[in-house]
């Protein structure tokens, strides 16, 4: 039996900041389950916390950010996107192929001069 080819992906998920901690965890569990149900494997989840959005999305100005590293078959990505579109607590998402799992993520402040 041949093994299914898997690629490493980095996903950014912004979940509604209006949710309770428990509801937010359930929303992330739903994202994770969608990945594992399609033969994917979660490698690392970075909880980046609550932050102001650059612009209003779905009538919300803040979101809770997560970065998820996972392996999955390339054929599953379109299915995942369809499922994420139906996820009412997921404000925005993005999935990219990546070369490595980042063990630590740091953002440098941007020098904004007006």
Largest sheet: 4 strands, antiparallel
Order of H and E elements = EHEEHE
Helix-strand category: alpha+beta
Taking all Cα atoms into account, the compactness measure Rg is 15 Å
Kindly report the average pLDDT value: 90
Find the count of extended strands (DSSP E, 2+ residues).
Answer: 4
β-strand percent reads 35-45%
Low-confidence stretches: none
- Figure out the total of helices: 2
Shape: globular
Order of adjacent strands in the largest pleated sheet: 2-3-1-4
Helix content: 10-25%
Distance between the termini: 61 Å
In terms of quaternary structure, the protein is single chain
Question: What are its keywords?
Answer:
114 residues, 2 helices, alpha+beta, 42% strand
Q: Quick gist of this model?
A:
The protein is α+β, with helices and mostly antiparallel strands. The protein is built from two helices and four strands. It has a four-stranded antiparallel beta sheet with strand order 2-3-1-4, covered by helices on one side.
């Amino acid at each position: 039996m041949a093994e299914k080819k898997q690629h490493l992906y980095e996903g950014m998920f912004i979940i509604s900041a209006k949710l309770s901690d428990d509801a937010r965890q359930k929303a992330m569990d739903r994202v994770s389950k969608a990945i594992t149900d399609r033969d994917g494997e979660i490698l690392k989840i970075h909880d980046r916390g609550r932050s102001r959005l650059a612009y209003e999305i779905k009538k919300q100005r803040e979101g809770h950010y997560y970065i998820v590293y996972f392996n999955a078959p390339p054929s599953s990505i379109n299915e995942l996107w369809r499922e994420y579109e139906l996820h009412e607590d997921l404000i925005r998402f993005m999935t990219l192929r990546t070369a490595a799992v980042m063990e630590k993520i740091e953002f440098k402040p941007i020098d904004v001069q007006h």
